[in-house]
Amino acid sequence: MSILSGKHILLGVTGSIAGYKAADLASKLAQAGAQVDVILTNAGEKFVTPLTFQSVTGRRACTDADLWGNEAHVLHVGFGKTADLLLIAPCTADTIAKLAHGLADNLLTVTALAATCPLVIAPAMDGGMFDHPATQENLAKLKERGAVIIGPVSGHLASGLSGVGRMIEPAEIIGHVRVVLGRNGKLAGKKVVVTAGGTQEALDPVRVITNHSSGKQGYALAQVALDSGADVCLISAPTALTPPVGARFVNVVSAEDMLNAVMAESADVLIMAAAVADFTPKVKAKDKMKKRDGIPQVELTAAADILGTVGGQTRRPERVEGLCAKRFHVVVGFAAESQHLLENASEKLKSKKLDLIVANDISAKDAGFAVETNRVTLLFANGKKESLPLMSKTDAAEKIIEHISTLLE
Ligand code: CTP
Questions:
Q1: In this structure, are residues 268 and 191 in contact, taking their beta carbons and an 8 Å threshold?
Q2: Which has the closest alpha carbon to 282: 202, 372, 172, 210?
Q3: Residues with Cβ within 6 A of ligand 1?
Q4: What atom in ligand 1 is closest to the CA of residue 303?
Q5: Which residue CA neighbors atom 8 of ligand 1 most closely?
Q6: What is the pTM (predicted TM-score) of this model?
Q7: CATH superfamily name and code, 8-182
Q8: Which residues are catalytic?
Q9: What tens digit of pLDDT does each residue of 148-159 get?
């Protein structure tokens, strides 16, 4: 279940052309399971109609007419009491100024005063208005009071000019909303390092040896760790995926790069979801290998064994001087096997000195590399075993993170 599922989100929409993107934002939030109540200002209503929002959220969208309607005396108080988060996107310079000064002259600003939930603001305006000292002072004041300001970003503006003032994109706004909703989660205050993707070992400047890993399971783990409030570092080999908002992202290519990136971290948890190369070309050709020179004889050598290094060095810090600071308290590995799944996984659990290994059978069509689903068995260092049914990689990540938080206790 996504962190957005069942959350009551108030979406304030003010007078900016970026309001058309707010419809997509409302739709995405609703599709993720959130109850989205939209409040439009008079100017917001001029750009997008309440009907648009009602159609995508399945709930009534409110306007200033509701401020003077039958429920006038309770509507804003009710919203303020039940909301998990107030998101204003797009937020104009005018609404920012009103919020900073505590003005309450429309349904949105009166609700903002009544609300005790976190406030997230995505400003949208022309570059000059954003740069104006009044706007900057107002934003600083709101930040000081705990509001989360996301964006604006640089790009083409409605005025035809280019500059900082564009609202950040809905998908990214949702990433920030997730971080705010998750900040008191079960991994709050914990640091989690996740590796993902298939490493690439260069043969020459053009060709690589790699594998079919898509990175999906690792990225899902990073997202769920963020949703649980963790400080997340995602170390990723090349993938087609967008890193989750809020994660510190470290881009790597080869097994050796990944080893160096992992060993530069210290954390409560290390999750090695990456498919790391076991073999690497002994010699990497400096120039492109040419066909005219004949079929190359490539000699392979062992690639860096990351878990082997982590397990062999940091788990016994008293015996290895200087490595105490690089300790990982809980180490989780993955075993992608095409035969003898549990025997091989349990052997890796012991030899790599893991707390937990996630075993998946890559010979199944609906599990493992590249697909959206996984069917995994969790093997624990204490001998416990849990077989999970076929589920989405996000659901599998939620189960794994749940167990990791128990291991940390
Ligand atoms: N792993 C690693 N360094 C490597 C290879 C793998 O740290 N060079 C990690 C993976 O990220 C995974 C676990 O070790 O968490 C098991 O990886 P897997 O490829 O299944 O096992 P190997 O130890 O490489 O053994 P084999 O390929 O022979 O099955």
A1: yes
A2: 202
A3: 255, 272, 274, 276, 278, 303-307, 333-336, 348
A4: 8
A5: 305
A6: 0.92
A7: Flavin prenyltransferase-like (3.40.50.1950)
A8: 211
A9: 999 899 988 887
